[in-house]
Amino acid sequence: MSDIENFKKFYDPFAETTSGNSDALGNIVHIRLQQRNGRKTLTTVQGLSSYLDEEKISRLIKIFKRDFCCNGTVVTHAEWGKVIQLQGDHRTKISEILSKENLVPKDLIKVHGF
Amino acid sequence: MENEIIDDFASLGIIKKKKKSSKKVDFDFDAADEEGASPDAPTTDAAAEEDPFDGLKKKSKKKKVIAFDDEDTPAEATEGGDDDLGGLEVKKKKRSSKKSLETFEQALMESDAPKKSSRSSKFNFDFDDEAGGDDMFNQAGDSDDFQMDADVDTSGDPMAVYQGNDTPYAYGDLLQRAFRLIREANPEHGGDRKRYTMIPPQVNRDGAKKTIFANLIEICRRMRRTNEHVTNFLLAELGTSGSVDGAGRLIIRGRFSPKQIESVLRHYIMEYVTCKICKSRDTQLSKDNRLQFIQCDACNSRRSVATIKTGFSAQVGRRRR
């Protein structure tokens, strides 16, 4: 039965597309990776301020720093609000934690980069 | 405060037992709201992520079917099966299967011809991927792979089992047979749709800190997108800066491997090329009242796409003063 390709996954052509219009809500959390010198990288998490207040962000970064064994800061940007910066590539781990702890709904987390 | 932090750790999965209770205490903000929103969230993303494998599996299956026709061994078996089913002339069927193989090979050759690169180094865009539409770049099987499949599957003609004995036909086998016959009779109805091929990006290093993306223009032409749009997307996704040089090559600051560039391109195709309705890549991007729209040439649907935003970029390197 499972050989039949049409039955493998239910695909609803009339369903709303989730990506695209979620941007209209304006509160996507972007997780990006930037290259530094050599093989070093920097992970930035932008857009958390619509989910967490300042104190919680600073508490969250403490947890990130300890769990990922890296350093990091919170930077306040004029346009993007509070942005978390962490040393190293922690994009998947961050998105996992954010969605697992129900801090941010999963389809509003956008992981950028390769 | 100290106590709270500890609770907080617990809430983020350090201490599993306290998780539930402490979460309520600490992240008291909009708990209901979050929980309402999240359960349906994972489904789409997970599906999208799993899709590449799905696509691969499917592909191999498609190959299998062709492999059947390849060998003549199942011919007797199908003969018996045909008599049994009281349907089709064996001769005609055999010939058509031969022909289909020929056409398949011809198609392969044709698709290979324009680019002299070997088949293994090319990507195939599969038209019939589902929901996520992820498996566009799936690697075309190289020749040994193909061979292997043929070896494995010649023995397993589904109808061979029914030859001679009175076991009732299983639905799956019958369906498989039906699909095979359809595919042989008229290939365009059998789900054997043409592939959208994309050439792999040529990426090489320029010194230690720069990456050259040589065939940007060629790729853009294939996707029917402007240079600038693709460049903007690449640079925004990779979080770097770059420029297009005189020869039309994109020079990106930072080290990137071809694989990384390819995955970003794949994202681009998913977001800005693929039609969300019919999964066709035969689309056009147009700008209208500051909004960008994708118009599908296959199904004529039209949808808006988000503009490319660079977002926050951290200060890297020496600070200017």
Write a structural description.
The complex is a heterodimer of chains A (114) and B (321). A five-stranded mixed sheet of chain A has the order 3-4-2-1-5, with helices on one face. Chain A contains three helices and five strands, in the order αββαββαβ. Chain A has helices spanning 18-25, 54-68, 91-100, and strands at 29-35, 41-46, 72-77, 81-87, 109-111. Chain A is 29% helix and 25% strand. Chain A has a single domain (27-112), classed as SUI1-like domain (Translation Initiation Factor Eif1, 2-Layer Sandwich). In chain A, a hairpin with a 3-residue loop joins strand 3 (72-77) and strand 4. Chain A is an alpha+beta fold and 114 residues long. Chain B has 321 residues and is of the alpha+beta class. Among the domains of chain B are: 196-273, Defensin A-like; 275-309, no CATH class. Helices cover 47% and strands 12% of the residues of chain B. Chain B has helices at 2-11, 19-26, 31-37, 41-70, 74-85, 90-112, 143-153, 171-185, 216-223, 227-238, 258-273, and strands at residues 123-125, 196-198, 203-206, 210-213, 242-244, 250-253, 283-288, 291-296, 302-305. Chain B has a four-stranded antiparallel sheet with strand order 3-4-6-5, with no helix packed on it. The longest helix of chain B has 30 residues, at 41-70. Chain B is elongated and about 80 Å long. In chain B, 24% of the residues are buried. The model of chain B is unreliable at 1-94, 112-122 and 124-155 (pLDDT under 50). At the A-B interface, helix 1, strand 1, strand 2, helix 2 and helix 3 of A face helix 1, helix 3, helix 4, helix 8 and helix 10 of B. Chain B: Keywords: Initiation factor, Protein biosynthesis. Chain B: Belongs to the eIF-2-beta/eIF-5 family. Chain B: It comes from Fonticula alba. Chain B: Residues 28-37, 68-86 have a biased composition (Acidic residues). Chain B: Pfam families: eIF-5_eIF-2B (PF01873).
